[in-house]
C-alpha cells in the first residue's frame, strides 16, 4: 500500500510570518505520521517559506526567472522548511529523507514537467520515507519556474501507482459557498465558483489549482484538515473525496 501525502505549507508554517515554522502543527503532523503503516511519501508546500521569496522574485508556475541568486534564495528557503519537516519526523524515529526537486525535476518549453520517480521508489523499497517539497525548477526557455507540491503529488502518485492520495490543508475539506465541506467532487466546473483564491501570498493558485490537478488522477484523493490526518493515515476518507469517476 503506497500513500502519497501532501502537507500544505499553511499547515506546517505560520503563513503570516515570513519563514516561520508552526512548531505545534508540525509536531502534531509528525506524531500522526509516526503512527502510520505502509509505504509513505510526504510532499510539503511552501507556506511562509517558498511563496514570499518566489513572489519577491516575480516567479510563479507560469513566469520564470534567470536570476540564479533569486532561484537559490527560493530553493534555500524551501530547504530550510524541508529540514524542519524531515527533522521532526526523524525525531519520532520515522526514517525520513529529503528529496530536493531542483536537482531532479525539470520542465520542457511547453511547461510539461518531468519528475523522475526512481530515487523516490528506491527510497520506498529501502523502507525510507521520502519527503519532497514544492520548489523552483529549471524550465527550458524560461529559466526557472515554481513546481508546486500539488503537482509533485499528482506526478508521484501516477508514477508510483499510489493506492491512496491525501492532501492535508488548513480547512477540513473543500468548502462550498456556505462554508460546508463538500463530500465529493467529480467535476471541476460544478464547484469552480465556490473555490476562492488563497488569502495569503500563494504563487501557485490555491484550492482551485489543487482540485484541477487532483481530478487528473486515477486514484481518488482526500482533502482534509490537520485534525483528520490520523483518520486518513489509518485508512479513512475524511473531508472531501476528489475522484473523477464513480470509484467508491
Ligand atoms: O505551496 C510552492 O509549493 P506549494 C513552493 O505546494 C514554492 O504550491 C517554492 C513557492
From TrEMBL:
GO function terms (MF aspect): ATP binding; isopentenyl phosphate kinase activity; kinase activity
Record: residues binding substrate: 51, 149
Cell inner membrane recorded as keyword: no
Assigned keywords, A-Z: ATP-binding, Isoprene biosynthesis, Kinase, Nucleotide-binding, Transferase
One GO BP annotation of this record: terpenoid biosynthetic process
Keyword set includes Transferase: yes
Listed Gene3D superfamilies: Acetylglutamate kinase-like
Annotated family: Belongs to the isopentenyl phosphate kinase family.
Subunit structure: Homodimer.
NCBIfam families named in the record: IPPK_Arch
Protein name in the entry: Isopentenyl phosphate kinase
Native species: Halapricum desulfuricans
Amino acid at each position: 500500500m503506497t500513500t502519497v501525502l501532501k502537507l500544505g505549507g499553511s499547515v506546517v508554517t505560520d503563513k503570516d510570518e515570513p519563514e516561520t515554522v508552526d512548531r505545534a502543527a508540525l509536531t502534531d503532523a509528525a506524531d500522526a505520521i509516526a503512527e502510520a503503516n505502509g509505504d509513505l511519501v510526504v510532499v510539503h508546500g511552501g507556506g511562509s517559506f517558498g511563496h514570499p521569496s518566489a513572489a519577491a522574485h516575480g516567479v510563479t508556475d507560469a513566469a520564470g526567472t534567470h536570476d540564479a541568486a533569486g532561484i537559490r534564495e527560493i530553493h534555500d528557503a524551501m530547504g530550510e522548511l524541508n529540514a524542519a519537516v524531515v527533522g521532526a519526523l526523524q525525531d519520532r524515529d520515522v526514517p525520513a529523507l529529503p528529496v530536493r526537486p531542483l536537482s531532479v525535476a525539470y520542465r520542457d518549453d511547453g511547461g510539461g514537467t518531468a519528475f523522475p520517480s526512481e530515487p523516490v521508489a528506491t527510497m520506498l523499497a529501502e523502507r525510507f520515507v521520502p519527503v519532497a517539497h514544492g520548489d523552483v525548477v529549471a524550465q527550458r526557455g524560461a529559466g526557472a519556474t515554481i513546481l508546486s507540491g500539488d503537482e509533485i503529488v499528482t506526478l508521484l502518485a501516477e508514477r508510483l501507482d499510489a493506492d491512496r492520495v491525501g492532501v492535508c490543508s488548513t480547512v477540513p475539506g473543500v468548502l462550498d459557498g456556505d462554508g460546508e465541506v463538500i463530500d465529493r467532487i467529480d467535476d471541476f466546473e460544478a464547484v469552480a465558483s465556490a473555490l476562492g483564491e488563497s488569502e495569503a501570498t500563494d504563487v501557485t493558485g490555491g484550492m482551485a489549482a489543487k482540485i484541477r490537478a487532483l481530478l487528473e488522477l486515477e486514484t481518488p484523493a482526500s482533502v482534509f484538515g490537520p485534525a483528520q490526518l490520523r483518520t486518513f493515515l489509518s485508512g479513512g476518507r475524511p473531508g472531501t473525496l476528489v475522484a473523477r469517476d464513480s470509484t467508491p
